[in-house]
Every structure is written in C-alpha cells, then in structure tokens.
Design goal:
The complex is a heterodimer of chains A (524) and B (324). Chain A has 524 residues and is of the alpha+beta class. Chain A has 16 helices and 22 strands. Helices cover 30% and strands 25% of the residues of chain A. In chain A, the strands form five sheets. In chain A, strands 1, 10, 11, 12, 13, 14, 15, 16, 17, 18, 19 and 20 form a twelve-stranded mixed β-sheet that branches. A four-stranded antiparallel β-sheet of chain A has the order 5-6-8-7, covered by helices on one side. Chain B has 324 residues and is mainly alpha-helical. Classes of the chains: A alpha+beta (524), B mainly alpha (324).
C-alpha cells in the first residue's frame, strides 16, 4: 500500500506541476511606471511599455526596429499625396466589437488633441491632410506634402475604440473603463506606485500568449529590483544594472537577456559659436576664439577618446563603441563608418595643425543620474583629454533635472547626452539632433549646440523626400557619412540593455528598450 | 485656549503662504519641466504645444498668481506628468504611508519604552550594556544599507518575507489597508522594521535618560519613604515625567517619518507619498511638489498643535499660552 500511495502522490505532484506550467502567471519587475493608461497621453517609453500590451498600432517594430504589419496589413501610395491603408481582418476589441476604419480615423484625429498631454503624438499625425474610409477595412489618407515615410509616422499611434474613447477622460482610462484595446492582454487594474495587472486576451489576432495573468510591479530602485528577482518575488526584471549582469549570469536558475540598444551616448561640442563659455586658454582665461569651431580640433578630441577602455572599465562591457547615430541592424547605419580608434599621436597632430599645439582649457559637463556610468564616463573623458595636452578645468556632474536646462540653454561647452533611436530608420534622430534648428521646418529640436551644416540639411531633405525605400536608406547613409566626417558631436558608445529572468522564461531583448509581457514567453 | 488656537491658525497661514512661494520659485529655478517630459523624438512643434498647454510659456509671476488664485479656490493644480489633480495623487498614496509609519512607530514605542526602562533602572548592568550597544547600531547604520540587508537576509536567503510592494489590501469598516490581510501584513513587516530601527534607538535612549534623571529626584525619594510600591513609583510617577520629552520628540519624528519615508519606500517599492515626492522632484512636476509640501506643512502644524495639547494634559505645570 505504501509504495502505491507514494506513487500516487508522485503522479499528483506531476499533474499539479503540469497544470501550473500551462496556467502560468508572470510577475514582472519594472523600473519605470506609466503616467496614464490612455495610450495616446504620452509617447515616452514608460507609457508605451504598458500601452503596447493592451493596445495595438497600425505597424510595430521587431527586436531590431524593423517595421512589421500589426493592425495594418498593407499600405500603398497611389500618388505622392495619397495613401491606402488596408486593415487586418477579424480584429476585435476587448469588448468584442470589431476594428473598423472609423476607429482608425477617430484615433488619428484624437491624437492631435489630448488635453495637457506632456508628450503627444501630434507630430505623428501632422502630415495628414484628410482621411476617408473607403470601406470597413480600408482608409484613404491625403497628405499635405509628399511623405515617403508616412506609415512610420501614423503607424506608431495607438488605435483606440471610437465608441469607448469618445469623450472618455484620463480617469476613465486609468480605472479601466475606457482601457479597451485590441492588444494581447486586457487591462485589469492599476495601483499607482505599486502594480498593474493584465489578463490574457484569448481573442488576440496575433501569437497566443503564454501567460494567463501578468502582474507588473514597479520597483524603481536598481538594487531592490535585482533582490526581488533573486528572492523569487518577481520572475523577470528590466533595466538590469551593468554591474550586476555577471552576478546574475552566475546564478544557475536565472538567465540574462541582452542586446545593444540604439541609444547613442555622445559628447556634444559647442562648435557653432565664436566664443564658448567653458573654453579657456591654458591659464584659465577666456579665449576670444572658439577652438571647437575647427573640425580638426573636433576630430582630434574624438581620437583622444579610448572608447573600448571606457566600455571595459566603467561600463562592465555593457556597450558597443559608436562612430555614428544608429548601430548595425538599424536602417541608416553606414557600415563603412567605424568608431574612431584611439590614437594620441594623430590627435596631437590634428590639434597642432589647428594651431593648438599646447592645447587649451575645457570643462566637461554631465548628468549623474540619467544612465549607468554617466558621471564616471565624463571623468574618464577628462583624463583622456588631459593626456592629449588639453587642460581640463573641471568635470561638472549635475542631477538630470538641473542639467537639461543648462544644456538646452547653451551654458556648456562640452557635455554628455544620450539619444535613444526608436524609429525604424535613423531619419528622425538625424533630423532632431543634427539638422539646423529651425522651428518652422520642425528640424533640430534636440540640436542643443545649434550645429548647422547646409550640405547635410540638403542631403537630409533629399533623403526624406525619396519614396523608394532602398534608395532612401542609401541616401540616409550618405548623409550620415557626410555629417559625421564633420564631427558634429563625438559619438561615444551605444548602450547595451539587459533583462534578467528565471531560467524557464524567454525574453526578446530588443533595441527599442521595450519591456512588455508580449516579448516574454515560457522557454521551449 | 481659544486665543491660542486663533494665534496658531494665523501663524500657520503665514507659514503656508511662504512655503508656497519658496517652493514654487525653487522648482522654477531648478530646470525646465518640458525638457523632462517630452519624448526623445519630439519635433519643435510638439515641444511648443506641450510648453503652451502646461502654461510654461508665461512669465513666472503670471504662473504663480494663476496658481495662487486657484489655490485660494481649493485647487492646487494638476500634475504635469499624470494630468490628475495633485491633491488626489497625494491622498491616494497617503494611506500606504500612514500604515507604514504608524506600524513603525508602534514597533518603536512597544519595544523602545520597555527596553529603555530596563536599561535606565539597572544602569551599567550587562542588560543595559547590551541594549545600549544595540541602539548604537540602530543609530549609526544607514537606513538604505539596513533595508538592503533586511531584504538579503529575510527575502533572498531565508525566503520568509516578501521584499517589494504593498501586498493585498483588505477592507475593514470602510478603511482600506494592508493591515487587514495576512499577505498585506507580511509585506508590511520588513519596511516597518526598516523605518522603525532608528526611532527605536531614539526611544530607548530618551527613556533611559529620562529614568536616570527622574529616579534621584526628591519626589521619588518621598514616595519611597511614604511606602509606595516600586512598581507604582516607576509606572505611574516616573513614567509620567519621562513622557514629556518622549512626546515632543515622537511628535516631530512622526511628522518626518510621514513626510520623508523616502528611503524605505524606495527600497521596498512601497507606493507611498515619499516616493511620489522624490519622483516628482526628479521630473520637476511642480504642482505635485508644491501641493505635497503644503500638505506636509499643514500636517506638521497639526502634529505640533496636538503635542502642545498633550503637554498640558500630561504636565499640569504647562498651561497653554494666552491664559495669562
């Protein structure tokens, strides 16, 4: 009898184990928290992370930021100003109603005018002149001027249900009443500062999800998040600090998922003005000529930076050296541009050619709480510049909220910043960071140093007006080559991003730094 | 008493007004909220739209007077980040902090007073030495490190207690609190201990000093001579006297525990107001920061008022001002 009982217990245990494997729940520890559930309220990453699980867009991106169809299955331009977008058949909202053209038109109209939205999608729909439903599943768009990347603009706006979202307030979304999407998970509840609960949408049009219930816990402190994973309180965490990656890899029932992101960390140089506030002569007196205006000086400084050393010693290997805006794999990357190699002799020669044989004085500014190692990297840069004969008057690190104001107001001469590229091509990043700052043209919104290169501006205008996708990428590559030869900023590295989870899980590490249950699964 | 209350009220209003001005200008001087809020791939037009919709394009004095005018009408503004009334955000998270703080305070008092008495009544004994040495640890170990150690020991190694979040919230008599569920209580233990260790040491030391100071006084000797039992002397006569410094310090500490439990809330991902404050400062969410500090200042004023009233109840020598 006894062995029999034992056997039965064993069978029962196996059944229970199998049962729990099928009905799996996921507890996700996330560093960031959304500010609202309305998917159109804010375009920032923390809001998108939640939105992309409950709602869908016309198109989405894969792990390497390539466009793939989502709610739209095809988009064709009939003439330069007209686009036809065909919607996926049989898509249902969480309340059972089918997705129609009307919902799409409503969503794209609504995106323009979300009250008090701090990061609206209005730019994404700015090109639309008019919209018309040709039938239930086809929308015709007219654009104000030819827009070859039209789908990249409107495609990333989240689609809400007209019937539900019309007149809904931000509270209606937060409570779940209006949080009705077409996404892989249904919204269940949100307790601000604590957690957010999702349940599987069994009628989802895409791949069936592995988890019945997903609980996202908001744990902003890095050490606490790692501890929560190690104690088993959560199954998966994002934003693993680079310093903890080795430790977590060494634990047998945990796994780390890593990828190089498209976030470029760079040193911006005040190269446009005749005088720069933190450039001095060797004695610390202000210079009446700004050496950073000379491309040779900028090239020299770039060659003084030992990128690999920074990556190995400060970032625990969690980065790739950068020589341009986007890394390999993202459209617009020019494989012929290498990250400038460290070469002190060449650098000194370039500085001497520019008339600064004995160097000059400079102060480097940085944030100290924005990304891993920001303050340390600035110190390292200071030492590397000093080695090239410059007199480094100081390295100033400030909290990000204080720092951005100074950086935006042109108070610094050399300062560290990052630019995360989340669009399928480098066009948006190039436009915002390096094109001439011009409010009316909508270019250069993050061009803090007011760098201006007419040849590059022209190249970008040609590239973004090109309808042939392949040709457009080639033109972007050419523009990239042209502008980085002029060293508008010193690209330093692309951050690597890490997720870590239990060994029975899989996660798609992605360049857009998205944390979403749709990217997680049970390891097969 | 009435005069006292009126005078207090007028003083409080002045303090609140000054706080509002200082905080408003302070946050304005730190940085540009628009820089913190807009998306990294925003265009110039979007940026201008955001700045205008938050009213950041107006001069400082105009922004302030709009705020002050609305505040006088009971509206402390909407959060830049959440687009919800800042007062609602604060009161939504206040219960979590309240339960954490009160539990921490109860820990500190229930353990601290007996230990302090024990120490004070038997000075320089082995028990006293152990308690005093222990309290030095409570004082000197940084709260952040303590919290991480608690998590490492009780969550990661032993696996007894959860390390993050608030746990299940139960309802009792219309009040929602994690005190009412087992899961909630489990989640509460570690953060409450973390928050209370410093206060515990403080209470031990205050009680011990109080006992040591009071015991040699004449009224104790007289009571002994009269034949009052030692128990009654300690728990009635001496205890009443040591309560006065305790109430003062605990009153102040309660305020700071409520307002600035930031470290504990951050480590244990506790959804309280301290974390809201830090996040809001980081994101330059001015309406929330201003509203928060106004609420906290009111809270401090209220606690101080209660402390003053308690004084007069415990110590008949103290009569609230205004009577003379």
């Amino acid at each position: 009898m006894k062995p029999m009982k034992f056997l039965l217990a064993g069978v029962a245990a196996t059944v229970i184990a199998l049962g729990s494997a099928q009905a799996a729940d996921l507890v996700l520890g996330s560093a960031t928290e959304p500010s609202a559930i309305d998917p159109q309220f804010s375009r920032t990453g923390n809001n998108q992370n939640i939105a992309m699980q409950v709602f869908d867009r016309l198109v989405q991106t894969d792990a390497a930021i390539n466009i793939e169809p989502a709610l739209a299955v095809s988009w064709t331009n009939v003439d330069p100003l007209t686009w036809h977008v065909k919607l996926r058949e049989g898509v249902k909202f969480h309340d059972g109603n089918p997705l129609t053209s009307e919902d799409v038109i409503f969503s794209l109209t609504r995106a323009k005018d979300i009250p008090n939205s701090p990061a609206p999608f209005s730019g994404n729909v700015a090109a639309i002149d008019s919209m018309k439903a040709l039938d239930d599943l086809t929308v015709e768009f007219k654009t104000k001027k030819p827009a070859p990347d039209f789908i990249e603009q409107i495609g990333f706006v989240y689609i809400v249900e007209k019937k539900v979202a019309e007149g809904a307030s931000i509270e209606d979304f937060n409570s779940g009443k209006a949080a009705i999407g077409t996404g892989a998970y249904k919204f269940k509840s949100w307790t601000p500062g604590d957690n957010l609960v999702l349940t599987r949408n069994d009628a989802f049009w895409g791949k069936k999800q592995d988890f019945d219930k997903v609980t996202i816990k908001f744990i902003s402190n890095d050490a606490s998040r790692v501890a929560a994973l190690r104690s088993g309180a959560v199954d998966l965490i994002d934003a693993v600090p680079p310093g903890d990656v080795k430790t977590l890899q060494g634990i047998s029932d945990l796994k780390v998922f890593s990828t190089a992101s498209a976030r470029m960390i760079y040193l911006a140089l005040d190269s446009a003005r005749d005088k720069s506030p933190f450039v001095t002569d060797k004695d610390g007196k202000p210079l009446d000529k700004n050496p950073l205006k000379d491309v040779k000086v900028r090239q020299g400084l770039s060659k003084l930076v030992n990128r690999q050393l920074i990556i190995d010693r400060i970032l625990d290997g969690s980065a790739e050296p950068a020589g341009q805006l986007v890394p390999k794999g993202v459209a617009g990357n020019d494989p012929s541009i290498e990250a400038p190699a460290f070469n002190a002799d060449e650098a000194k020669k370039l500085l001497a050619d520019a008339g600064y044989k004995d160097g000059f004085g400079i102060t480097i500014h940085t944030s100290n709480d924005r990304f891993p190692g920001d303050a340390e990297v600035a110190q390292a840069l200071g030492q590397m510049f000093a080695r090239g004969g410059l007199k480094v008057n100081g390295v100033v690190a400030q909290p990000y909220n204080v720092y951005t104001k100074g950086a935006g107001a042109g108070e610094f001469s050399a300062f560290i910043f990052s630019l995360g590229n989340s669009t399928p091509t480098s066009a948006t990043g190039l436009r915002n960071l390096l094109m001439t700052a011009n409010k009316d043209a909508g270019t250069g919104s993050f061009n803090r140093t007011k760098y201006s290169n007419p040849a590059f501006d022209e190249a970008m205008r040609t590239a973004t007006a090109e309808f042939d996708a392949k040709k457009r990428v080639e033109l972007l590559q050419a523009a990239t080559k042209l502008v980085f030869a002029d060293v508008p900023v010193i690209p330093l590295y692309w951050q690597k991003v890490h997720w870590a989870g239990k060994a029975n899980l899989s996660y798609v590490a992605n360049m857009t730094e998205d944390t979403s249950a749709t990217l997680a699964g049970l390891a097969k | 008493m009435t005069v006292f209350v009126i005078r207090r009220f007028l003083q409080s209003t002045a303090v609140l007004a000054v706080t509002a001005v200082i905080v408003f200008i302070g946050i304005y001087a730190i940085g540009d909220p628009a820089e913190m809020l807009i998306s990294p791939d925003a265009s110039q037009a979007e940026r201008a739209q955001v700045v205008a919709s938050l009213g950041l394009d107006k001069p400082l004095w105009e922004q302030f007077f709009t705020f002050a005018w609305n505040a006088l009408h009971g509206d402390l503004g909407r959060s830049f980040v959440f687009n919800r009334p800042s007062i609602a955000l604060i009161f939504e998270r206040l219960p979590a902090t309240l339960e954490l703080t009160l539990t921490g305070l109860v820990f500190a008092l229930v353990l601290g007073i007996p230990l302090g008495l024990l120490s004070g009544l038997k000075p320089d004994s082995a028990t006293d030495e152990v308690i005093m040495t222990g309290s030095i640890f409570g004082f000197s170990l940084p709260s952040f490190w303590q919290g991480m150690m608690l998590i490492m020991i009780f969550s990661v190694w032993l696996g007894w207690l959860p390390s993050t979040g608030r746990g299940q919230v139960g309802e009792f008599l219309g009040v929602h609190s994690s005190l009412f569920t087992l899961d909630g209580l489990k989640h509460l233990i570690l953060p409450a201990i973390n928050l209370s260790l410093f206060k515990l040491s403080l209470v031990i030391r205050l009680t011990r000093t109080g006992v040591r100071e009071t015991m040699p006084l004449d009224f104790v000797k007289f009571a002994r001579a009269k034949g009052v039992s030692e128990k009654r002397i300690v728990f009635v006569h001496v205890f009443k006297n040591i309560l006065i410094p305790l109430i003062t310090v605990i009153g102040l500490e309660l305020g700071s525990m409520l307002a600035f439990a930031v470290v504990t809330e951050t480590i244990f991902a506790w959804p309280g107001i301290g974390k809201l404050l830090i996040d809001s400062i980081m994101r330059l969410d001015r309406p929330v920061v201003v509203a928060y500090l106004l609420v906290i200042v009111s809270l401090f004023i209220f606690i101080n008022f209660v402390v003053d009233v308690l004084y007069s109840m415990v110590d008949p020598r103290v009569r609230l001002g205004g009577a003379q």
